[in-house]
């Protein structure tokens, strides 16, 4: 038995605990004494105070009420007004997940209804907000976590055994190394490998969708990387350049945890399944399949912002809001129980957007920061939000007047929802005529996820979501495009409209199909609102290319672009140069070392130089495969 569990059991009367297991960093005690479960006089709280770890008491799964009867009881206990939509039982862990339209009503005053459910059924209830927009794909992704409850319980226990393996053990010599397996002086294939004497951690594992066969994937063949010794993967957010290669790890045998926020877990599942579909449609095969994506989801551990959790014997993790997209996180690692505090920002936005609050700037301790520099160059000054909103309204209005359609290639996560909210507001306030806005690709399902996690959005949008009649995501101007046939109807039969379609860089996806049909007419407009990676069709069009070709199987299609082409930089989910400098100005405490990544070479070097000059701190802009000793 693990030392920490032995220590806990010393404080509990003999015979009261039937089993003691780990759920990742959490410790769960099971009891066959139902009275002890309901009334233990604060004993568990005292233990938590003593060992400073999360400890939970549940009834042994053998004694929980039968699922059918328990569901009947739950529905009787909860008021009809709370709108229960789904009840899911995790039979191996004595937990029941209850989805409700109004979670507050389901919880009851000071948790009274939750207590009643525990007393009547002996199940531990977890309340989740039901998304106002339902998505079958999202429900299937979440279902993976409950379908094989027995495996999940064993997996989480194994993780806990590894975490507490060194509890109260004398520490070895302490050091920290960081290897750049991707995103070193480039945008894309983010992958940062952190090593300590006790731990091997991978932060992000992405692809560069515009990188071609030789520049697409992270350098997992680096001599220091060994998949068999990998302890944990942490995903900052669900864009493909940060998560797109993670299922490949599972294809080759990794069975450890993947840490990320709950929205990032749901969105990553969607993005990766869509990526599998695109890979197969373009080349007939892919680097991994849908089964590998499901295996990844089965091994996820979702962590909320500012929730502190141990992830290895000598590393404790806290995720903070990065302001980039829904659920995007800055990864703060406390290494060696206070030896060093390092933060990897992932992609971040230190500025208010239509959807999200700015990135966090206050941390308990901070010595080193690994920061992105997508717009880190001196000339990367992003326009103010209001100016960008007005420019978008102007583009749409002028296109509609000449009877055309506006095509907005978007990333399925972030820019799409940002632009939807802006268009909805422009229509609601009368600055734009009421025109249909068609949504194609995974944008609809990702938007459904946004409605399920209002606590991750800024205060203004959150208030609107809580009132169904004000929820901007439910506006009747938004129309879902659900098939290739419907897509052709939008292209051929509808009049002036706005179309949001993935992919954002015109590298595969429905946006390319729309461009083929709409790009030849001068009535239409193509408007870029997201970063266009080097080598992508989107970047080439931005740079003036007007004769483009598409590969369709063995055939080549050519198109002369006659549509109007626009770029609006102000909708970026990345910080511009000024915001990046402001972030470090406001950062508390000030870091002593900054490593600049995820930017074109000149921008990485420029930002590193400016940070060194202004703040007198050590900076570095490593290339891929460089290794830095942090401590």
Helix content: 25-40%
The end-to-end distance, rounded to whole angstroms, is 34 Å
The number of domains is 4
Query: What is the average per-residue confidence, as pLDDT, rounded to a whole number?
Result: 92
Mind telling me the CATH class of the largest domain?
Alpha Beta
- Unreliable segments (pLDDT under 50, ≥5 consecutive)? none
What is the CATH architecture assignment of the largest domain? 4-Layer Sandwich
Helix and strand content put the structural class at alpha/beta
CATH topology of the largest domain: Metallo-beta-lactamase, Chain A
Percent of residues in beta strands: 15-25%
Kindly report the name of the CATH homologous superfamily of the largest domain.
Ribonuclease Z/Hydroxyacylglutathione hydrolase-like
Number of H/I helices: 21
Rg over C-alpha atoms, rounded to the nearest angstrom: 25 Å
The outline comes out as globular
Widest beta sheet: strand line-up: 12-11-10-9-8-7-28
Q: Using DSSP, what is the number of strands? A: 28
């Amino acid at each position: 038995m693990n030392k920490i569990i032995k220590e806990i059991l010393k404080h509990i009367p003999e015979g009261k605990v039937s089993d003691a297991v780990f759920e990742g960093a959490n410790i769960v005690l099971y009891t066959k004494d139902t009275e002890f479960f309901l009334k233990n006089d604060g004993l568990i709280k005292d233990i938590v105070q003593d060992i400073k770890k999360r400890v939970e008491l549940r009834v042994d799964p053998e004694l929980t009420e039968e699922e059918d009867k328990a569901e009947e009881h739950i529905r009787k206990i909860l008021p009809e007004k709370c709108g229960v939509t789904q009840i899911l039982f995790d039979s191996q862990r004595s937990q029941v997940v209850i989805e409700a339209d109004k979670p507050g009503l389901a919880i009851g005053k000071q948790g009274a209804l939750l207590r009643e459910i525990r007393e009547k059924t002996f199940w531990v209830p977890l309340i989740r907000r039901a998304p106002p927009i339902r998505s079958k794909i999202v429900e299937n992704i979440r279902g993976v976590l409950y379908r094989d409850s027995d495996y999940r319980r064993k997996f989480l226990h194994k993780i806990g055994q590894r975490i507490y393996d060194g509890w109260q053990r004398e520490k070895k010599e302490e050091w920290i190394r960081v290897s750049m397996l991707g995103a070193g002086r480039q945008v894309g294939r983010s992958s940062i490998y952190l090593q300590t004497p006790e731990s091997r951690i991978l932060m992000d594992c992405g692809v560069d969708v515009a990188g071609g066969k030789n520049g697409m994937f992270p350098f997992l063949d680096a001599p220091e990387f060994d998949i068999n010794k990998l302890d944990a993967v942490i995903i900052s957010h669900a864009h493909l350049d940060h998560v797109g290669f993670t299922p490949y790890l599972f294809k080759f045998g990794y069975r450890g945890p993947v840490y990320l926020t709950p929205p990032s877990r749901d969105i990553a599942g969607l993005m990766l399944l869509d990526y599998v579909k695109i890979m197969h449609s373009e080349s007939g095969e892919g680097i991994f399949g849908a089964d590998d994506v499901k295996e990844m989801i089965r091994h996820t551990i979702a962590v909320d912002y500012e929730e502190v959790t141990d992830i290895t014997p000598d590393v404790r993790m806290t995720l903070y809001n990065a302001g980039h997209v829904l659920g995007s996180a800055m990864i703060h690692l406390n290494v060696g129980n206070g030896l060093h505090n390092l933060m990897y920002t992932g992609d971040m936005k230190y500025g208010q957007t239509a959807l999200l609050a700015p990135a966090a700037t206050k941390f308990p301790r901070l010595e080193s920061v690994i920061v992105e520099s997508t717009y880190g160059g001196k000339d990367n000054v992003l326009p103010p939000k209001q100016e960008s909103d007005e420019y978008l309204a102007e583009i749409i209005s002028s296109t509609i007047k000449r009877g055309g359609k506006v095509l907005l290639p978007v990333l399925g996560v972030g820019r799409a929802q940002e632009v939807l909210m802006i268009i909805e507001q422009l229509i609601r306030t009368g600055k734009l005529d009421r025109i249909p806005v068609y949504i194609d690709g995974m944008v609809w399902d990702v938007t459904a996820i946004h409605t399920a996690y209002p606590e991750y959005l800024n205060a203004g949008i959150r208030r609107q979501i809580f009132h169904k009649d004000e929820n901007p995501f439910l506006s009747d101007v938004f129309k879902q495009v659900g098939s290739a046939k419907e897509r052709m109807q939008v292209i051929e039969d509808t009049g002036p409209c706005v179309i949001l379609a993935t992919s954002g860089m015109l590298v595969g996806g429905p946006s390319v199909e729309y461009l083929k049909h709409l790009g030849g007419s001068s009535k239409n407009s193509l408007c870029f609102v997201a970063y266009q990676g080097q080598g992508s069709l989107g970047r080439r069009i931005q740079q003036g290319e007007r004769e483009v070709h598409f590969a369709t199987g063995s055939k080549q299609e050519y198109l002369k672009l006659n549509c109007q082409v626009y770029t609006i930089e102000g909708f970026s989910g990345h910080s511009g140069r000024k915001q990046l400098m402001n972030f470090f100005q406001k950062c508390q405490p000030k870091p002593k070392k900054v490593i600049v990544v995820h930017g074109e070479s000149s921008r990485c070097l420029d930002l590193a130089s400016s940070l060194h000059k202004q703040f007198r701190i050590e900076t570095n802009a490593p290339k891929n495969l460089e290794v830095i000793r942090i401590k």
